[in-house]
């Protein structure tokens, strides 16, 4: 049934993967879904398997006129996953690391030891005084 396939795709796609560089914002409630996706291990982590799964789900949906748009979307997603898998990407969970509180001594800044930069003395000019009216 197409609605069962839709629920399966939604469960698989909801948790975001951790980026290689930079930070990734976690979706609301993603930690619960991440635990479900992690249970299936390489079946959900590998993008080759995701590409085949999306393509397999697209085939039966293509026989009904009412699900043609979903078929196109699943086909495009399958192609994107295949390209990502060829490039060596895989799904990685976003795991929260406990934040360390900064120590009080580390937050106090030392006063500067060097004076601020100034232009050379020959380039500095005296400003002419303005005559008041």
UniProtKB/TrEMBL annotation:
A single Gene Ontology CC term: plasma membrane
Transmembrane spans: 51-84
Organism superkingdom: Eukaryota
InterPro entries: Cyt_b558_asu
Keywords: Cell membrane, Membrane, Transmembrane, Transmembrane helix
Subcellular location: Cell membrane
Any one GO molecular-function label of the UniProt entry: heme binding
Xref: Pfam families: Cytochrom_B558a
Compositional bias segments (type: Basic and acidic residues): 121-133
Region (Disordered): 96-133
UniProt key word Membrane: yes
Main localization of the protein described in the UniProt heading: membrane
Family of the protein in this entry: Belongs to the p22phox family.
Quaternary data: Component of the phagocyte NADPH oxidase core complex/cytochrome b558 complex, composed of CYBB (heavy chain (beta)) and CYBA (light chain (alpha)). Component of the phagocyte NADPH oxidase complex composed of an obligatory core heterodimer formed by the membrane proteins CYBA and CYBB and the cytosolic regulatory subunits NCF1/p47-phox, NCF2/p67-phox, NCF4/p40-phox and the small GTPase RAC1 or RAC2. Interacts with NCF1 (via SH3 domain). Interacts with SH3PXD2A. Interacts with DUOX1, DUOX2 and TPO. Interacts with NOX4; this interaction mediates superoxide generation.
Protein name per Swiss-Prot or TrEMBL: Cytochrome b-245 light chain
Gene: Cyba
């Amino acid at each position: 049934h197409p609605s069962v396939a839709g629920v399966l795709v939604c469960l698989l796609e909801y948790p975001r993967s951790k980026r290689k560089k930079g930070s990734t914002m976690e979706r609301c409630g993603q930690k619960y879904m991440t635990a479900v996706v992690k249970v299936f291990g390489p079946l959900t982590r590998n993008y080759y398997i995701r590409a085949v799964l999306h393509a397999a789900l697209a085939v039966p949906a293509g026989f009904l006129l009412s699900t043609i748009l979903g078929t196109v979307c699943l086909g495009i997603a399958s192609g994107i996953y295949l390209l990502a898998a060829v490039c060596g990407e895989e799904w990685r969970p976003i795991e929260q690391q406990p934040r360390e509180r900064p120590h009080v001594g580390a937050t106090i800044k030392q006063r500067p030891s060097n004076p601020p930069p100034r232009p050379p003395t020959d380039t500095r000019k005296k400003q002419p005084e303005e005559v008041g009216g």
